[in-house]
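dumping this here before i forget
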Amino acid sequence: MLNCQDKTAKNNVLNVDPDKFEFVEHLSDNILKSQKSGGFYPLSTDEASPKMISELDEKLQKETYLQIKDLLGHYESLKFHSMVIKDTNGRYEIYRFKGGFKLGSDVEVRAVLDTNGKLAGFFVIPWKDAL
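structure:
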């Protein structure tokens, strides 16, 4: 397992592919901004695994965001925290962001990329320092 952390600037993170980082940060932000505006983000086969596309559909995105909004307020921002590589039943890169929400709770926005560099998991969960 490899863990790369930087709490101040993404440019100083070692071993993080800048193209993958930009992709996952942009995708995570777009998903949450689309949900905030009352819509949903339609994942493409260039961005996500087939399973992720079918599971993170319009209905689930809208229902989930309503729950998030009720607990945390509207989405505002992302700030990179760390990237962890896990090699269990395949290689996964886990990107952890501190999520900024209207009510300011400690929230993690977690995006998981599979071995093909496609979104395989997306979570908005309470923050824990350890993964």
